[in-house]
Amino acid sequence: MRPSLLAVFAHPDDECLLAGGVLAQHHAAGTRGAVVTATWASASRRAPELAEALAVLGPGSPRLLGCNDARNPEAAPGRPRLVDAPLDEVVGRLVGHIRDFRPDIVFGHDALGQSTGRPDHVRTHQITLLAVEAAGLAHLHPDAGPPWQPAALYAATHPESGVGLLRPLLEGMGKSILAVPDSYVTTSVDVTSWANTKWAAILAHRGEVARERLLPGVLARLPEADRTRIIQTEHFTRLTPGPTKGDPGQLTT
């Protein structure tokens, strides 16, 4: 039995780009899955696209923290930006989702903020670290439900050797690549069999695909073979409690 998964990402489309293959693979195997998105509100233009993408991948309806995007005030008008919101309050909301869903594994952004270091990605990583620990402690956020301790926390990441075609594409747009040393990666998953499903989910984010300087738009304009090479492998680092074979927190390769 594959472990249940809860993904926590900053923006709609991060779930597809960084872990769409793993989410689709686990869903097809009958495993429970869910996705929490930190920014954009349920009434925003991107919420229906997120719901469509998750319907393709299989992990259920969107779970939205509803914070504003650091760069786009239309994400959640009247709400604080994720990077400005009270830390304990946002952690408590995520703890509520963890305790409600009771996953074996939680995974999300790495400490670098995923390739280009977007501030919302970095903040989501920090919030996820705190929430995973707090979820198992009854004295923290007692109103968020009975405690639940996930078996493991993973960060989706990009190793130096795995950046490949992404580096010239992003550098050509004036963006840097923040990759981690290969030794930092504990699990690499070949999702070639799920590449078409992953790509269909990415395409559901139509607003991002239409923008040529965003990654979904860049991928949409590549030859299919190059695009598949970029999205066919997903890399993760186990952050806690450390690699242990055969336990419920082992992400299946």
Automatic annotation (TrEMBL):
It comes from the Bacteria. The keyword Magnesium does not apply. InterPro entries: GlcNAc_PI_deacetylase-related, LmbE-like_dom_sf. Keywords: Zinc. The keyword Zinc applies. PANTHER family: N-ACETYLGLUCOSAMINYL-PHOSPHATIDYLINOSITOL DE-N-ACETYLASE, N-ACETYLGLUCOSAMINYL-PHOSPHATIDYLINOSITOL DE-N-ACETYLASE-RELATED. This is PIG-L family deacetylase. It comes from Streptomyces achromogenes.
